[in-house]
Amino acid sequence: MDLNSFYKDKVVLITGASSGIGEDLALFLAPMGARLVLVARRQEKLEEVAESCRAAGSKVLALTADVADQSQMEGVKNAVIEAFDRIDVVVANAGIGLADFAQRMRLDQHRQTIEVNVIGLANTLIPFVDKMMEQRSGALVGLSSLAGYRGMSGSASYCASKSAAWVFMESIRLDLKSYGIKACTIHPGFIKTPMTDKNRFKMPFLMDVREASVIIARAIAKGRPVTAFPWQMKLFLGFMKRLPTTLYDFLMLKVFPVPLKLQPKD
Ligand SMILES: NC(=O)c1ccc[n+]([C@@H]2O[C@H](COP(=O)([O-])OP(=O)(O)OC[C@H]3O[C@@H](n4cnc5c(N)ncnc54)[C@H](OP(=O)(O)O)[C@@H]3O)[C@@H](O)[C@H]2O)c1
Q1: Would 93 disulfide with which of 9, 22, 84, 198, CB 3.0-4.6 Å?
Q2: At a CB cut-off of 8 Å and minimum separation 6, what does 151 contact?
Q3: For ligand 1, atom 14: residue with the closest CA
Q4: Which segments within the chain are labelled E, that is strand?
């Protein structure tokens, strides 16, 4: 698959484009001549990415919006249609990684995680369904995670949000298939970005963000329904996913023992 000819002149919207995977995917697609719509909340950071993409030869629309806000995302859709009168790829990438143990979980953070990672994903993708139906083409892309395969301790909110994103994507894939619209789910393992830079544990098979961008760009171009990587993590968590519950609990708690004396947060 020649990525350059696939992405040339395609209108590609990416949320969470001010950092990490979203930023790098934009920078990867820009020299191919994709017309980019970049969305995030931090205007200054977003403009920096937009400028780099323009310098690489891409036409860029940079829009500040909160994906959790339905009316702001309707506004994003209207701005895209006004600017380009079409949409080829929408990547619902914006996400947050707030997670903690049940013993000290903060429900406001749980709500925020669901609002961004689940509601935000729908707020990003669904407004474009009408236009894609009219075009009878397009790809809706959702960033889930290998963490959505099963519950992991210390990550209930994040795992739940990514699991919901995954099943949501699967349902819309079925809804839209006969209309010529692709729905692609992406399950990364650990990718080196500001999100994972905060982790204080050793992350197995940590992948460089550019490697991840190449895999994601290819998956979209091929219209692959589900893409999980790196392969070692995909294999390991694919195996864990199939284990009976008692064995899963036993192995997970051996590898990731829950600290004793967890205190509730202030
Ligand atoms: N890195 C990994 O190992 C990994 C693994 C599996 C899945 N993922 C998923 O991949 C996606 C990108 O992660 P990343 O590692 O690139 O994270 P990141 O570096 O922290 O970037 C997150 C991006 O999302 C944006 N964002 C957050 N909340 C937003 C909101 N309410 N509205 C609009 N934009 C928002 C942030 O921009 P602003 O703050 O400017 O809004 C930022 O651009 C996430 O969905 C994440 O869950 C990552």
Answers
A1: 22
A2: 159, 160
A3: 20
A4: 11-15, 35-40, 60-64, 89-92, 139-143, 182-188, 226-229
Top pLDDT among 259 and 97 is at: 97
Query: What are the Cα distances from residue 97, in Å, to 113, 146, 198, 254?
Result: 7, 13, 10, 24
**pLDDT tens, 187-200?**
999 999 999 999 98
Residue of the CA atom closest to atom 7 of ligand 1: 145
How far is the centre of ligand 1, averaged over its atoms, from the C-alpha of 42 (Å)? 12
Could you read off the pLDDT of 157-189 as tens digits, one per residue? 999 999 999 999 999 999 999 999 999 999 999
Q: What is the CATH number of the domain that holds 80?
A: 3.40.50.720
Domains held by the chain: number: 1
Does residue 266 fall inside a structural domain? no
Is the full-model pTM beyond 0.85? yes
Residue 192 lies in a domain: yes
- Is 261 domain-assigned? no
Q: Which atom of ligand 1 lies at the shortest distance from residue 161's CA?
A: 47
CA of 156 to the centre of ligand 1 (A): 18
- The pLDDT value recorded for residue 259 is 83
Examine the pLDDT at 56 and tell me if it is beyond 70.
yes
